[in-house]
Amino acid sequence: MTRAPDMPDPIAQDWPAIALVRPQMGENIGACARAMLNFGLTQLVLVEPRDRWPNPKAQAVAAGADAVLEAARLEWTLEAAIAPATLVVAATARPRRPEKPVWAPRECAQNLLAAVAAGERPIVLFGAEAMGLTTDEAARADAIVTYPVNPGFASLNLANAVAVLAAMIGETRQSESLPAWFVNPESPPATHDELEGFFIHLEAQLEFGRFYHPEDKSALMKQNLRSMFLRARMTQQECQTMRGVLKALTIGRGGRKKDSSE
């Protein structure tokens, strides 16, 4: 079917993106694509799906949102999925320490669209049907979105969880005002790929300096350090400056490890 000239493109690859991390059932992927397109979200990222892709079961349930599935980006690591993003939000009902902003769905929708208006590239992570996002996966996010669900029955179907946030985004798009949570800095925000390069550089130098002690606490210490810098929401220039600081502090140090991104 040919679209009329005045009809909007139904699958323009606009932000925010929705990422399904380790999705298990093709039917749920198809239902997520349908809910996304209902409310104008079109950029879908699949991270390590359990079943083969493309999946005919997903296409059967998508009910007209096949184009979203066909345009979906397939990645096999979370790092690759979030690399181009400048803002990562994790959808989870698990209790977290107060180290990241925690948003309700409507507040999250407002902040996502404010980020887009400021030129950012936000992505929302949804975990696998059985267990949701792991602690390590959620730790990579800049913020958390959590739903006001019944505490005695908090588990949502994956497609329902996507639909709730998509509906809030659709509603917010029709409103007149967005929160001033984001600004347009002279330097654009750092992508998570650039941040990951900084984290690898930092962690390599800290390992060489025997910072991670005791060793069994190293994973938690790395998470805490990452959370601290993620809260700062560094720009590209600030990220480059911090890389320069690390190099200046370690130049000439015997046996210095060279990080993989140098």
Question: Would you write up a description of this structure?
Answer:
- This protein folds into 2 domains: 17-173, Alpha/beta knot; 192-250, no CATH class.
- It is built from 10 helices and 7 strands.
- The chain has helices spanning 26-38, 56-62, 66-70, 78-82, 105-117, 135-139, 158-173, 192-208, 218-232, 236-250; strands at residues 17-21, 43-47, 73-75, 87-91, 102-103, 122-126, 143-145.
- Strands 3-2-1-6-4-7-5 form a 7-stranded parallel beta sheet.
- β1 (17-21), α1 and β2 form a beta-alpha-beta unit.
- Mean pLDDT is 86; it is low at 1-8.
Describe, in short, the structure shown:
The chain is of the alpha/beta class. Helices cover 42% and strands 11% of the residues. A 7-stranded parallel beta sheet has the order 3-2-1-6-4-7-5.
Average per-residue pLDDT, rounded, comes to: 86
Termini separation: 50 Å
CATH superfamily of the largest domain: SPOUT methyltransferase, trefoil knot domain
Hey, roughly how much beta strand do the residues contain? 5-15%
What's the CATH class label of the largest domain? Alpha Beta
Give Rg in angstroms.
20 Å
Shape assignment: globular
Number of helices: 10
Low-confidence stretches: 1-8
Largest sheet: 7 strands, parallel
Tell me what the CATH architecture of the largest domain is. 3-Layer(aba) Sandwich
CATH fold-level label of the largest domain: Alpha/beta knot
- Helix percent band: 40-55%
Judged by helices, strands and strand pairing, the structural class is: alpha/beta
Summarize the helix and strand pattern as letters. EHEHHEHEEHEHEHHHH
Order of adjacent strands in the largest pleated sheet? 3-2-1-6-4-7-5
